[in-house]
Design goal:
Blueprint lengths: L2 H6 L15 E3 L9 E5 L1 H6 L9 H9 L10 E9 L2 E6 L3 E8 L5 E7 L14 E2 H16 L6 E13 L3 E11 L5 H10 L2 H15 L9 H23 L1 E2 L21 E2 L23 H20 L3 H12 L2 H16 L9 H15 L3 H9 L8 H15 L5 H11 L7 H14 L3 H10 L29
Antiparallel strand pairs: 1-3, 2-8, 3-4, 5-6, 6-9, 7-9, 8-9, 10-11
Helix pairs in contact: 4-15, 4-16, 5-6, 5-8, 6-8, 7-8, 7-9, 7-10, 8-9, 11-13, 12-14, 15-16
The protein binds adenosine monophosphate and magnesium ion (MG).
């Protein structure tokens, strides 16, 4: 251990390397020319038990660029597969390096991964690098998601590399340090299944259970329980996404983490005006990953996970399929129950009444018809503000008020619940784009930093309306790009 290492407080203890060989390739990051630290998440560093305050920026830049590694790191690229827009491919970390599993002071185990850190054997035609814009985008949105209460990977640091990456144009290169509960994906299981090596598959499943769901180790049917638990985590996750108007954009099976965290922020975006068909990603021409299609796709991805797990469910394939179908058969009703519960919270409905589903549905229909802003409509309701001008809305509002008065608890509790469920501030695309452009084009991080700070307390009513105003027509962002 070097002096800097022991001072920083790394506690690497990596178990992934105990998996069979095909799951990873040991490889170091490719050093970069001139690393400069541009973002450092001090609050997250504290949670991780890392002391970075007294480390010079130049050393931090070397560290988070992958130029100088912590001694106990065991850098590797993970192998995985995935269904991308429905088509199967063998994949892997083409431009990311897992430095290792770090133990936090709370006893949690997190992956520390560099993204944009150079080519690996899985890079195919890619250059192994990342551009600054998309890495800052992942930083700001993942941290906003965390503050919004959504399970997500976190962002610890961004460094610029001093190198240019060639995309449609020449862009500044960057490396993001990502912190995750793990990087095991549905696609990791598909990869294991494709190997047709049941020992390897079982090793992966046992690793996932030990890491994320240790209570299942005692179960008589641990792999069926694994499938069911992952299903429930995904239902919880997608319900959160729908609550805040988030659209992941690339819900390929390689971008779905077994832990239930949101992972791989690419062309993701938040909806302004409510429309269930909203799609931003330039590569999603068919709307496969549209806002309201996300639960369906989560179910589709879980079916791919179930297929991969079949050999572990039962030695007899017919029996195995039957078990998998029994579990997945519960997806729709569990999702509906979850979603309805979430929407009840958004409207302060503190008991379950049969009239709730139509009441919710009619509001959403009205919002869609009128292009109402998703975030601001629910926030206004939470603040006790009402649009009295539209007769249709006024009629709905009267019925809602009547329903609220039937709550078993005092009114203020309903509004308090709503204020905790309906954020005032989300990372609106036009603002994110503005912040990224200033940083990328002019090296001006002030807009970015101000936005990051505001997004850290999304349920507080802001003093100024600067961050809550929907985009003007000329500010509207219609498309987002992977920009890998
Ligand atoms: P993503 O769309 O970022 O989830 O990436 C899909 C796959 O392509 C992953 O296996 C990535 O590692 C790989 N990939 C994306 N961009 C690059 C790049 N610039 N160089 C190498 N591999 C890449
Ligand atoms: Mg990915």
């Amino acid at each position: 251990m070097t002096d800097t290492d022991s001072h920083i407080g790394w506690q690497f203890d990596t178990h992934y390397t105990q998996l069979p060989e095909p799951f990873y390739t040991r490889i170091d990051p490719v050093p970069v020319q001139n690393p400069q630290l541009v973002m450092l998440n001090h609050a997250l560093a504290d949670t991780l038990g890392l002391t970075l305050n007294n480390v010079p920026d130049a050393s931090l830049a070397q560290l988070f660029a992958g130029n100088r590694l912590p001694q106990a790191a065991s850098p590797l690229a993970q192998a995985y597969a995935g269904h991308q827009f429905g088509h199967f491919s063998m994949l892997g970390d083409g431009r990311a390096h897992l430095l290792g599993e770090h133990r936090t002071p709370q006893g949690e185990r997190v992956d520390i991964q560099l993204k944009g850190s150079g080519r690996t054997p899985y890079a195919r035609r890619g250059d192994g690098r990342a551009a600054l814009g998309p890495m800052l985008r992942e930083y700001i949105i993942s941290e906003a998601m965390h503050a919004l209460g959504v399970p997500t990977t976190r962002s610890l640091a961004v460094v610029t590399t001093g190198e240019i990456v060639l995309r449609e144009t020449a862009l500044p290169g960057a490396v993001l340090t990502r912190v995750a509960a793990s990087h095991v994906r549905v696609g990791t299981f598909e990869y294991a299944a494709q190997l047709q090596d049941i020992t390897a598959l079982q090793a992966l499943a046992d690793y996932a259970i030990a890491r994320h769901f240790p209570h299942l180790a005692e179960s008589t049917e641990p792999y069926a329980d694994l499938l069911e638990t992952v299903m429930d985590r995904q239902i919880t996750l997608v319900t959160h996404w729908l609550r805040i108007g988030f659209i992941h954009g690339v819900m390929n099976t390689d971008n779905m983490a077994i832990s239930g965290e949101t992972i791989d922020y690419g062309p993701c975006a938040f909806m302004d005006a409510y429309d269930p068909a909203t799609v931003f990603s330039s590569i999603d021409r068919g709307g496969r990953y549209a806002y309201a299609n996300q639960p369906h796709i989560a179910g589709w991805n879980l079916a791919r996970l179930a297929e991969a797990l079949l050999p572990l469910l039962h030695p007899d394939q017919t029996q195995a399929i039957k078990q998998a179908e029994e579990i997945l058969g519960q997806f729709n009703s569990r999702f509906q129950t979850n979603w309805l519960g979430m929407m009840r919270c958004k409207l302060g409905l503190l008991s379950d009444e049969p009239e709730d589903a139509p009441l919710i549905g009619e509001l959403l229909q009205w919002m869609q018809k009128n292009g109402a802003d998703y975030t601001n409509t629910f926030r206004a309701l939470s603040m006790g503000e009402a649009n009295e001008e539209d007769p249709e809305f006024a009629e709905w509002h009267t019925r809602w008020q009547k329903r609220l008065s039937g709550n078993p608890k005092p009114q203020h509790e309903a509004y308090a619940k709503m204020l905790r469920t309906n954020p005032a501030i989300i990372p609106r695309n036009h603002q994110v784009e503005k912040a990224l452009r200033a940083a990328e084009n002019d090296g001006d991080f002030s807009v970015f930093n101000a936005l990051v700070e505001t997004l850290a307390t999304p349920y507080d009513t802001p003093a100024s309306s600067a961050y809550t105003t929907p985009p003007k027509p000329e500010e509207r962002v219609y498309q987002t790009f992977c920009g890998t």
